[in-house]
Amino acid sequence: MEGYKEPEGINEQExxxxxxxxxxxxxxxxxxxxxxxxxxxAESNAEAKSDPENPEASNRANIKAQIKIAILLSKTEKxxxxxxxxxxxxxxxxxxxxxxxxxxxxxxxxxxxLDA
Length: 116
Fold this sequence. Notes:
The chain is mainly alpha-helical and 116 residues long. 72% of the residues lie in helices and 0% in strands. The protein is flat, with a radius of gyration of 14 Å.
């Protein structure tokens, strides 16, 4: 899962721990997870804006944000199924465009690791 760092200002391990201990329905956990997702999306938007001339930049950035969220879920004990579904959604998006086939390959590898 190299190449994907956790969002700035949010401790990924803390999110994983509370997801496993309290579950996603807990309001505190839900708020923390939403903050994590929002930060991933903000980083995605910033990445896309850094290359406004490239129409594929936004698509790549959004797929990378999906990957980060799926990686987070894959680190939990309770949400492996949701992680796999998130990886598969990201894979489907990445495999639709030649400029993101490298991301599709990375996602395929991450799915294989999750299945191992």
